[in-house]
């Protein structure tokens, strides 16, 4: 070990003793750091459900559920509240989805929407806050309070549901400053977003029920003959008791962050003989497998959008499936090929997800992974990692090189779309519709791509005709990243903005990539060792007095200015960065023990 390297390691231990009061200096070897991070994950995971009350609004969608299995006419009343509409430079649409039947929506006494459906419509959840509605109409509402009335005549007896949303014109995201509330402002009733009445005889005159001037006090005294002749009254919706995941970080959920740290924890066990998290990993896999059918049944019964394992059911983005499936693919890889059960949960899941990525995932015309937001179609740097790692696992599992070649293609094309040749950094996104880059070179976005290139180079045969090109892409990106490393050793949230805060997860990803590059001979040790050690030293100091990991930025969409990224906050122990910390510890152990 060089004198410079020894000096940096000593400094690391000194500073670790200052920064982390509960972590002794001698404990912060890469192994102890990996153990510390892994224990945060294990101790922060609660494999159970807790009761919660069903929400009227879920991810910007409002559910009107008429709790009667009879045919007839149903009426619902709610109140639209609008504020600061002048701040929006986009127009408003009312979108609706319904089961088979006749639907009319009235705002302030004016019919704004009518639709007749012979078959049920099903809501398609395609992105964060983005749904594909079957119908939408322009709507103009000023600041203030507006009366909303929904009339629905279901074609069939059964679930009588209508879903509506107020969306904006720029690719159908939820309209800010607008919400629905109960006809009554009584705080005891505010959780119930609408009142309903029915079933009524079809084709009746219900002007008294739809009179927008009626107050809540007047509505509650109304009585009317129902379809079967009995007296019916306005009522609140039946809100169901649903299963929810405890905790605010939900390490136990189906999420790409969980797939990442589970894969890393398995590698931790391979690298450090004293550490074994196989029981936790299996418990995590089983938590999904044992409960997914019941959660699906609950979602269907109650019309839920949000809830446990939500991304499993959305199943649209690479975010929703790719990394989450890696722990299940790992289980198959570790099994005896002769005993793999094609009816097992992990076998079906892995093959279904890989088929989606290869054949159904949204792409540009040249095959590059893309999303529908924030503009159609957009390349997100994040997606290179989200879609590629499970394909590399599938290559190992099956021996079929088509999966490897798909990752190679994606790495090259992402580099073509996102690289800024002036500084060898990646933009967070590219908008194909306008042929423009997004505003910012976000740290973790660059990290996801470096993680992918690291994983690819580890398995790419030396004789592969594309290896030299992939290696050049990796080295060029590494050089660009090294040039913007801070004196502290970490990297900034906005890579080329030294005024932006120093961010932990991106730092871990770059340290891991640099260390792997040195270990594998892809990068010059003389050129990158000091930078790598400095990054590691600073990374392992990012704990508070309780040992919690600090400085990990929360989930981050493509935004439209460096300032927005700078103002995007961090969260202690955010799972999106913990896997990267473990990968970094593994590679640093290899580097320091060489």
**Ends distance:** 9 Å
Poorly predicted runs of 5 or more residues:
2-26
Q: How many β strands by DSSP?
A: 26
Helix coverage percent: 25-40%
CATH topology of the largest domain: Glycosyltransferase
| Highest-level CATH class of the largest domain | Mainly Alpha
Largest sheet: 6 strands, antiparallel
Quickly give the CATH architecture of the largest domain.
Alpha/alpha barrel
Structure description:
The strands form nine sheets. Strands 4, 6, 7, 11, 13 and 14 form a six-stranded antiparallel β-sheet that branches. A five-stranded antiparallel β-sheet has the order 2-3-12-5-10, with no helix packed on it. Strands 18-21-22 form a three-stranded antiparallel β-sheet. Helix 5 (256-271) packs parallel to helix 8, helix 12 runs antiparallel to helix 13 (467-483) and helix 14 runs antiparallel to helix 15 (525-539). It has 17 helices and 26 strands. A hairpin with a 2-residue loop joins strand 2 and strand 3. It is elongated and about 85 Å long. The chain folds into two domains: 3-50 and 244-592, Alpha/alpha barrel (Glycosyltransferase); 55-238, Sandwich (Jelly Rolls). By secondary structure, the chain is α+β, with helices and mostly antiparallel strands. It is 40% helix and 19% strand.
């Amino acid at each position: 070990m060089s004198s410079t390297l020894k000096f940096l390691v000593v400094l690391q231990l000194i500073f670790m003793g200052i920064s982390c009061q509960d972590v002794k200096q001698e404990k912060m070897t890469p192994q102890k750091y990996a153990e510390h991070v892994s224990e945060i994950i294990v101790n922060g995971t609660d494999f159970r459900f807790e009761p919660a009350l069903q929400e009227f609004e879920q991810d910007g969608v409002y559910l009107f559920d008429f709790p009667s299995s009879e045919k007839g006419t149903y009426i619902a009343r709610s109140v639209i509240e609008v504020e600061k509409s002048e701040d929006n430079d986009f127009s408003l649409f009312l979108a609706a989805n319904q089961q088979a039947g006749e639907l009319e929506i009235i705002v302030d006494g004016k019919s704004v929407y009518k639709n007749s459906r012979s078959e049920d419509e099903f809501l398609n959840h395609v992105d964060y806050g983005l749904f594909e509605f079957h119908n939408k109409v322009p709507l103009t509402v000023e600041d203030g309070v507006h009366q909303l009335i929904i009339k629905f005549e279901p074609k069939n007896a059964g679930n009588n549901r209508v879903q509506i949303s107020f969306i904006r014109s720029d690719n159908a995201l939820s309209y800010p400053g607008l919400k629905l509330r109960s006809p009554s402002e009584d705080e005891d009733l505010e959780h119930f977003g609408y009142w309903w009445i029915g079933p009524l005889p079809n084709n009746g005159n219900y002007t008294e029920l739809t009179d927008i001037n009626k107050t809540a006090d007047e509505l509650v005294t109304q009585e009317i003959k129902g379809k079967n002749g009995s007296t019916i009254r306005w009522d609140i919706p039946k809100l169901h008791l649903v299963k929810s995941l405890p905790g605010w970080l939900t390490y136990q959920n189906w999420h790409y962050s969980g797939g990442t740290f589970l894969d890393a924890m398995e590698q931790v066990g391979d690298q450090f003989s004293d550490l074994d998290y196989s029981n936790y990993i299996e418990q995590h896999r089983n938590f999904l497998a044992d409960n997914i059918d019941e959660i699906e049944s609950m979602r269907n019964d109650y019309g839920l959008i949000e809830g446990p394992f939500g991304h499993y059911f959305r199943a649209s983005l690479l975010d929703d499936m790719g990394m989450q499936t890696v722990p299940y693919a790992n289980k198959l890889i570790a099994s005896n090929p002769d005993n793999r059960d094609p009816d097992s949960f992990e076998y079906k899941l892995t093959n279904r997800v890989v088929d989606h990525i290869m054949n159904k995932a949204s792409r540009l015309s040249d095959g590059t992974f893309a999303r529908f937001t924030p503009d159609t179609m957009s390349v997100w740097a994040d997606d290179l990692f989200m879609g590629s790692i499970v394909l590399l696992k599938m290559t190992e599992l099956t021996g079929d090189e088509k999966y490897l070649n798909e990752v190679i293609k994606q790495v090259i094309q992402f580099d073509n779309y996102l690289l800024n040749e002036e500084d060898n950094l990646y933009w967070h996104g590219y908008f194909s519709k306008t042929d423009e880059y997004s505003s910012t070179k976000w740290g973790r976005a660059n990290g996801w791509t470096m993680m992918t290139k690291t994983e690819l180079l580890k398995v790419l045969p030396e004789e592969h005709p594309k290896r030299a090109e992939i290696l050049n892409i990796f080295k060029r990106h590494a050089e660009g990243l090294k040039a913007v490393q801070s004196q502290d050793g970490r990297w900034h949230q906005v890579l080329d903005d030294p005024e932006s805060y120093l961010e932990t997860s991106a730092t871990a990803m770059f340290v891991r990539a640099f260390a792997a590059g040195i270990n594998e001979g892809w990068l010059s040790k003389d050129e990158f060792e000091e930078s790598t050690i400095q990054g590691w030293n600073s990374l392992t100091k990012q704990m508070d007095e309780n040992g919690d990991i600090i400085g990990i930025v929360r989930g981050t969409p493509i935004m439209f200015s460096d300032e927005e990224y700078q103002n995007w906050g961090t969260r202690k122990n955010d799972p999106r960065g913990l896997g990267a910390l473990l990968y970094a510890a593994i590679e640093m152990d290899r580097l320091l023990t060489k």
